[in-house]
Design brief:
CATH architecture of the largest domain: 2-Layer Sandwich
Distance between the termini: 50 Å
Helix content: 25-40%
CATH topology of the largest domain: Dihydrodipicolinate Reductase, domain 2
Radius of gyration: 21 Å
Oligomer: single chain
Largest sheet: 9 strands, mixed
Structural class: alpha/beta
CATH class of the largest domain: Alpha Beta
Bound molecules: alpha-L-sorbopyranose
Shape: globular
Number of helices: 11
């Protein structure tokens, strides 16, 4: 067997996403036949002791405590950005200038203006780039894409999606700091819109095309929270919940909702698409199933099918176990790395690229702007 080409990874940040990505780099070559093999070269974070413990646990060869040093290293090919959103741009632009490939956590940036600069930087440098919108690569979601591309739904009328959580209902949850930066607008840019709704929008654009206009309302239910770093009470300026109406370019109507105040829901992402011939529905808590209803089925047998997406002819599944045995959340990241490496092999960019994700960012910005002044926004 020919030796694999190494893809030497330098990861910046090491929280929850750092774990999902590290696992993906470690597992991908066990299951996918690829020319490239990720090498866990270095992980970077400010606290040397903690980042060393992470490196030891996940098998990184070295650590850095200054991301600029990491980018300057010539033994690193790709920078993985797992930091809070407010430093994505600076890191990505520096990495692109240094000729590094970039794998960036979602959302791409704090806002569209930053995203534009990031796109310009990677395109000027000609470096491979991708954003970790992982849910596209749930096999059942990829299968939804295939069914839509085959035209099985016919004309699409409705696209509705929700992403529901409940972890910020307690007013004692702080904002800011390592664990709760997602509640701090300075670090995150926005609340549920950039964090959760962005997933719904990325999938929606991928499956159903461009979103042309939106009208939205957002709410911040808890107005003040203690800042984890300063201990001071501060006004909360993120959106806790968002409800959005929209129109796609293909004439279909969009309804999106996301919140961290849906008691009982920890991470429930669902979508349903209704076309003239058929409908599709998917639910993250039952992620290996795709629900499909086809009006053309024989009359008495017409009804919703629940397809267990675990057979060898289902997307990604022939690389896993045997038919009928399902896989889960972490595999979506492994699929993303597999596709990214395949893209390097074939020279074909794999999405969502920075440019693709800029479109999601524009929709997020339009949602926040609409919620502010109560008018429809065109994208
Ligand atoms: C927030 O709780 C979060 O971890 C998001 O940041 C992720 O993108 C989402 O997949 C799960 O929820």
């Amino acid at each position: 067997m020919a030796a694999k080409k190494p893809l030497r990874i330098g990861m910046i940040g090491y929280g929850f996403m750092g774990r999902t990505h590290s696992n993906a780099y470690s597992q991908v070559n066990h299951f996918f036949d690829l020319e490239y093999k990720p090498v866990l070269k270095a992980v970077c974070a400010r606290n040397a002791e903690k980042v060393q413990a992470f490196a030891d646990q996940w098998g990184y060869e070295s650590i850095e405590t200054d991301w600029k040093k990491m980018i300057a290293r010539d033994d690193i090919d790709a920078i993985d950005i797992c930091t809070p959103n407010n430093i994505h741009k600076e890191i990505a632009i520096a990495a692109a200038k240094a000729g590094k490939m970039i794998l960036c956590e979602k959302p791409l940036a704090m806002n569209t203006a930053e995203g534009e600069e990031m796109c310009a930087a990677v395109e000027k440098a000609g470096v491979a780039n991708i954003v970790w919108y992982n849910y596209r690569r749930v096999p059942a979601v990829t299968m939804a894409k295939q069914l839509i591309e085959r035209g099985l739904l016919g004309k699409i009328f409705h696209y509705r999606a929700q992403f529901l959580q409940d972890w910020t209902i307690n007013a004692d949850v702080p904002q800011g700091g390592a664990a709760t930066w997602r509640l701090d607008a300075e670090a995150a840019g926005s609340g549920v819109t950039g964090d959760l709704l962005a997933h719904c929008i990325d999938t929606a654009i991928w499956l159903n095309g461009k979103i042309d206009s939106v009208s939205a309302m957002t709410e911040t239910f808890v107005k003040e929270r203690t800042h984890a770093l300063t201990g001071q009470k501060q006004a909360v300026s993120i959106d806790d919940a968002a409800a959005v109406m929209g129109r796609f370019s293909n004439g279909s109507l969009a309804l999106f909702e996301s919140t961290r105040y849906a008691r009982g829901h920890k991470a429930l992402y669902t979508f349903e698409i209704n076309g003239e011939n058929a409908s599709i529905a998917w639910d993250l808590h039952d992620l290996h199933r795709l629900k499909f209803y086809d009006y053309r089925d024989e009359g008495p047998l017409r009804g919703w099918k629940s397809i267990h997406v675990s057979d060898g002819d289902h997307p990604y599944m022939k690389s896993w176990w045997v038919p009928g045995l399902q896989i889960g959340y972490e595999h979506t990241f492994i699929h993303q790395v597999a596709d990214f490496l395949k893209g390097l092999e074939t020279g074909t960019p794999v999405g969502p690229t920075f440019r693709d994700s800029l479109e999601t960012q524009k929709v997020c910005d339009a949602i926040l702007a609409s919620a502010k002044d109560g008018t429809w926004k065109h994208i």
